[in-house]
Design a protein that fits this description.
Layout lengths: L2 H20 L2 H18 L9 H39 L4 H7 L2 H12 L4 H8 L3 H23 L2 E2 L5 E2 L9
Length: 173
């Protein structure tokens, strides 16, 4: 049997099988493509053509399992990175105070993006505002935070607009 015949016979059923398991169209397309690449590459190993359907769907199951393994590694790595980022922010002089003093419309997007690790488009859905509005609120919040850090703690801004230096704050020292 040829890969093209397998494609004609199983492509729709296999696609919807993967989509049902993964529930993500982009991931389904990747898994579907990888499945057919493996089918094409390993077709010579198929000994009994009567078992072609079971063989094809087993390859798909393995690819789905690989996808979920990769996802879990990615999520774990992202969580670890977010924890590190949160800790490094909290070591900055007056950080918690300045975040808590932000008006709520600026505080929410900052906390969701920088402390909880959400993507800006996720934040726009959570807060039910446009992505442009999320970006504008984050930009304004950063401006307020930079101003507060500069006035209170005497940090300086580098050429990229990032805070540099050591705290020189009467509250912290």
């Amino acid at each position: 049997m040829e890969t093209q015949k397998i494609w004609k016979q199983f492509n729709e059923e296999l696609y919807f099988f993967i989509l049902k398991k993964v529930k993500n169209e982009a991931a389904t397309n990747d898994i579907f493509q990888n499945t057919f690449l493996k089918i094409h590459k390993n077709l010579h190993q198929l000994k009994e053509e009567e078992k072609i359907k079971a063989w094809v769907f087993q390859i798909a199951r393995n690819e789905i399992a690989n996808f979920f393994k990769q996802e879990s590694v990615y999520v774990a790595t992202t969580k670890e990175a977010n924890e590190i980022n949160t800790e490094s922010y909290q070591n900055i002089c007056c950080f918690d105070t300045f975040i808590n003093q932000l008006p709520l419309i600026y505080k929410e997007p900052i906390e969701l993006v920088y402390l909880k690790g959400k993507k800006q488009n996720e934040v726009s859905e959570i807060l039910d505002i446009s992505l442009a509005n999320v970006k504008a609120r984050i930009r304004r919040a950063k401006d307020i935070l930079k101003k507060n850090f500069n006035e209170c703690c005497k940090y300086e801004l580098d050429k990229n607009g990032s805070l540099i230096g050591e705290p020189n704050c009467s509250k912290c020292n």
